[in-house]
């Protein structure tokens, strides 16, 4: 990221750090292991009906660690903002249901189910990302379903971006990350919002503490108390 050569090298590393949902965790990645196989899934089991705008979301059941959640409705639930309350401070976010309706709907559904309550943010790469949303805190957990990416191909990831972690194309679940500083990640991660300046400051303050002895988790526990 500092020079052409370093940027290329860093990009490979950072992509490997942002896999999510399925596979074993080797402790070197910032979410689920991208080198592992994608999570298994069954026949899509959507609920609800198409929205007036025509958007219909499909969520596929998956066998994975974590805790199972109810499938979100096929008709997207829209929300413009939310607050992630943590033991380190509140992180307020503006959501983008127009560009990522199914992602926002999934996140809202999980929040309404209390899915994130009491979970730890399991990955920290200082100067890059803080990653959360895995109830197992292993980097391999999820809600028991996956859903497709919502990408245009021109996504950028400036500081404050709120995006989904994945284990390859169309393997989104419950894991998400907050970008701590402008990043040159490839457009492979669905962006569904951004955090405000105060929320970004909370995440950056967490990063200042560095990593725990395992070199992966934050040095001090970061616990999501609620998402509302």
Comma- or semicolon-separated keywords:
Cyclophilin, two-stranded antiparallel sheet, single chain, 13 strands, 17% helix, globular, nine-stranded antiparallel sheet, 228 residues, 3 helices, alpha+beta
**Topology order in helix (H) and strand (E) letters:** HEEEEHEEEEEEEEHE
Number of strands: 13
Q: Specify the biggest β-sheet.
A: 9 strands, antiparallel
Annotation field: number of helices: 3
By CATH, the topology is: Cyclophilin
- Shape verdict: globular
Proportion of residues in β-strands: 15-25%
Q: Roughly how many Å is the radius of gyration?
A: 16 Å
Oligomeric state of the chains in view: single chain
Structurally, the number of domains stands at 1
CATH homologous superfamily identity: Cyclophilin-like
Mean pLDDT: 82
Enumerate the strands of the largest sheet in spatial order, edge to edge or round the barrel.
Answer: 5-13-3-4-12-10-11-7-6
Low-pLDDT parts are 1-13, 21-52
CATH architectural category: Beta Barrel
Helix content: 10-25%
